[in-house]
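Quick one:
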Amino acid sequence: MRGALLLLGVVAACSTNHDALSRRPDAGSGAGGGVIDASADGEAGADASGGASGGGGADGGTGPFRLTLMNGVVDGPRVWFCFSRAGSLAAAGGPQPTGGLAYGAALSLAALDGFDPTSDALAPWIVAAEPERVLGKDCAALLAEAEAVPEAGAGGAGGAGGAGGASGASGAAGAGGAAGAAGASGAAGASGAGNGGADAGTDAATPPPAVRMAALPTLPAGTLAAPSSYLLVATGCLGGLAPADGFAETVCGPGHSAASPSATAMVVALSRSTSPAALGVQVVHASRASSAIDVASKPPAGSALASVVLATNLAPGGIAPRTPKLDFGVGDLGSPLGDATVTVTPARSGTAALSLPWSKVLTAGGLTGLTEGRTYALVLVGPRADLGAGSWWNAPLVTILDASE
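Output:
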């Protein structure tokens, strides 16, 4: 199933959703001093127990179908995506994209050939390997090399043998917009060739598996039926790399273990709503290991500008606000923008766990700046936000995606 491809530079990650995401009209500040709150009418998000989240619907704005795939796999420096309709990769074709996606990168699909979003369930898979192990092979051959991997939906909380996670309820239609995507079913377990997906507890001297592969949660038929812009972030850990260092859940998310890797997916519908003279911003929480967060834009030191709160109390799998508040401009985020920072704070704690210059966020998303009249999605991926990179895991990252297309 080879879709029309457009390579972007962005990021990714996931969690379980047992209910539709609820509205939060009571968004608080979360940034000290004078604060502009752009986060009202946000979403509370889903809990982080292992299935995929249904992130609610697009709220307006028109455009064609688009599915953006992001690599937010914490122990996956480079991954490929495979797709099938029934959980079997026998006729799935080749992995996408040809060169794989680096951590924090994204791939935008304008179509999935042979897939009817109204009647077909979509089963995504991810592959992590060195490029030479993938080149020239189809998805079925890679699966055989990675040995047995449970079919999509076969494992609960990212593990093998458990019940699938509950599907998320569809999001309510926004004013003039399409109804939200239904949540995907529970995550399946990951497997590594040669060691069955061993993770924390693996002897540090044991060579990592050459090919690691996981079935992500199946998206039920109809999930992607609306002509909206969807974001699917692969998140959690595939397993197979970690020595016994005790960081498994802190890095990979709740429930991760050698027997039950946490690899899963988060799915949200992005807004295309724009205003010619204003900036639109949404925040996607795709870090399975982080708890609820507040996100703000902090101006450079010495600036007279106020901080701008972009999201508050946003849980893993959530997107906020559902309808971007189109009442501030690029200059309100900090001037010069590149010297301002994006801060990620554990909800209502007041102490930032992660602070990244806007220049780094823009670079991660392949952008040189922001433009009024456009709406953007900031995406948090990686381990717990206060951790740096480790010997076998990627650092936490905030990246950005132009959602206006």
